[in-house]
Amino acid sequence: MGNWNVYLSGEIHTDWREQIEAGIKAAALPVALSAPVTHHEASDDCGVAILGAEPDKFWHDNKGAKINAIRTRTLIEKSDIVVVRFGDKYRQWNAAFDAGYAAALGKSLIVMHGPDHQHALKEVDAAALAVVETPEQIVRILEYVINSHLAGYTQ
Q1: How far is the C-alpha of 83 from the C-alpha of 10, rounded, in Å?
Q2: Half-sphere exposure (Cβ direction) of 149: Cα atoms closer than 13 Å
Q3: What is the pLDDT confidence band of residue 90, given thresholds at 50, 70 and 90?
Q4: How far is CA 37 from CA 42, 45, 151, in A?
Q5: Domains observed in the chain
Q6: C-beta neighbour count of 151 within 10 angstroms
């Protein structure tokens, strides 16, 4: 099999994506990563920057959400695995939507969050094939499913 396409959705305020990328490189895994636009202001303002100003914040956000959805939907649909990270700083409603969209498409879903979010995300977790707390766990899952390699076990 060629490259595995892995979409990294969710919070944008920590370096979890970079940690996964570094782990994939260190393990020499054939993985192509993609993600939403992670520049917060650009993501919020893309609709009005491209299509024109809106006096009402609802329409400002609506334009941006639709343009961002072009990228998000396309990349999730092309992915083999979707990883969704829920962070501590903000409520990531968009991440929950991405998880639901991936689940509805039958995508392999890995969800990452801390124990404090366990109850709030119980339905999302139930749709996931794995629920993890660290980027390292995601890399280990990828190494196992791609190469059939489990650290500490010999074949």
Answers
A1: 8
A2: 10
A3: low
A4: 8, 11, 33
A5: 4-36+79-147 (3.40.50.450)
A6: 8
Q: Evaluate whether 31 touches 146 at the Cβ level (below 8 Å).
A: yes
Which tokens in the block code for residue 100? Answer: 């639901």
DSSP labels for 63-128? Answer: HHHHHHHHHHHHHHHH-SEEEEE--SSS--HHHHHHHHHHHHTT-EEEEE--GGGTTTTHHHHHH-
Q: pLDDT, tens digit, for every residue of 111-138?
A: 999 999 888 899 999 999 999 999 999 9
Cβ atoms of 48 and 60 within 8 Å: the answer is yes
Most distant CA pair in the chain: distance in Å?
63
Q: Which residues contact 91 (CB under 8 A, 6 or more apart)?
A: none
What is the DSSP secondary structure assignment for residue 28, as one 8-state letter? Answer: T
